[in-house]
# Entry
Amino acid sequence: MAGDELSFGEFMAARWGPLYRTAYLLTGDRHEAEDLLQGALARTCVRWSGIRDKRAADSYVRQAMVHQMSRQWRRRGREVVTDELPDRGHGGGLDVRADHLALWEEIRKLPPRMRATLVLRYVEDLTEEAAARQLGCSVGSVKSQTHHAIKRLRAALPTLELAQEMS
Amino acid sequence: MTTTEIRAALTEVRAAVEVPPVDDVAFRARVRTERRRQRGGRVLTASAAAVVLAAGAVGVAQLVGAETGRDVPVASGRTAEAGAVAETVWFVRDGRLTALDPSGQVHDLGLPSEGVVGYTAERVYAVDAESHVVVRGRQQDPDRPGRDTAYPPAESPVPGAVQSVALSGDGRYLAWMDLGHTVTVYDLEAEGVDFRVDVPRNSYVAAVSADGVLVSEDVDLVLHTATGEELAVPTQEAGDNWGAQAGGGRVLVAGPTGESSVYDLQTGVARRIAVVGGGSGALAQDGTTVATIETAPDDSAVVNLWDGRSTQPLRGLDGVPQQVRFAGEDTLLVQTRGGSATLWACATDSRTCGALPVPDGSFRLAE
# Structure
């Protein structure tokens, strides 16, 4: 099927699952993930005809999610690290290795922007430049956010001995 | 351990997350909200869709709890002058279905509502918070003409939640798109389905009239008729047919370029007969009059009224127009925002407006 023939309904049916999973990694909460994704998809839906390359719509939705989260960051004024994690959201660690689960619990405690940086860099495999565009920040900010995220994770889980790889 | 472990942990969690099914009702409600937001954003570059009236902005009014029969006094400050309505008008105020009767009383039905689909002298059709179409009748005080006493629930012809819905200007046809992709046109007078048509999933019902149902189908605006014909209506710019309304054999398409086009469909093709300044508007049910909001670069705006021959601005409005809606053929409702926000009733023949005695809140005049 040519990209410009893809209907929004087909796109949503095919991509709801993968995009939800990304939303979950961004928010760390099932309900917030669904809310975030629905909002981003609704924005995409009403602008669907204006998206020239429908095959790139994933990126559009992801960026809409990140932008929405950015607005929330700005409203909050500053990011607050919390130890309260009300929703595990992944079936209590089903199919997740114990050490990876421990790492994820620490990632969930990171400020949203740091967590989003890790997701874009290490799950979505975006370059620093592309991640910066999606986050609406500089490349330097992506580098520093990544650096500080790893530093915090290393401090929280010293036995994991995270190496400071930036690329 | 390296950042590869971060990647592995995130990837593993990502794969383990249970994905919920799409909540179609909630999603369609979000889409409708987004469309409303988009419309508001285009017309009003510097304002939010919802408008909050400042306390004491409008004249003496009483807010009546229609469900309980309690009269609730509200703030007053300015007496409405020319603003008056011949029949009860409906809108959503602070998220609840609200009526203003001809006697000037405001009735809060206490019904959470996304928007008003349309209304006649006898009943109103609205979309509730669960995307169901609800219907309320109207009972009047026999001793006090123009004063409504109750709005009893009436049976809705719509069986389930809808993605979009429209009522014809004459109140005869109700058209809705269900959670599948079927559009049903219902004849309220004959109390039966007029016709059904399947449309692409990402469509929405823009308007319905005796001519058929006008459906926005991604990049196209299509009039589907009862005889199965399809008539394409140009939208000037793909996907921006958000302001489409139909009536009297005509269609109004309010586009993002700051102008609205009026098409005549009588000959079986969409023939553009007029262009009116303003990127948001309303078409009278008989198709003879168009009201548009024309915004200037400094964010000031006027309401233009096109009567088939010429375009003239309305007089007497105070504040920046936000929304317009016809209430019958002779009255145009306008909601403005300034330091406060006001609802106005404007006579289309004299082009003059007067404020209505509606207390502060955030308003939505249409679905």
Observations:
- The interface with chain A takes residues 1-20, 22-23, 26-27, 30-31, 33-35, 38, 181, 200-202, 218-219, 238-239 of chain B (CB under 8 Å).
- The radius of gyration of chain B is 22 Å.
- The helical segments of chain B are 3-16, 24-43.
- The longest strand of chain B covers residues 106-119.
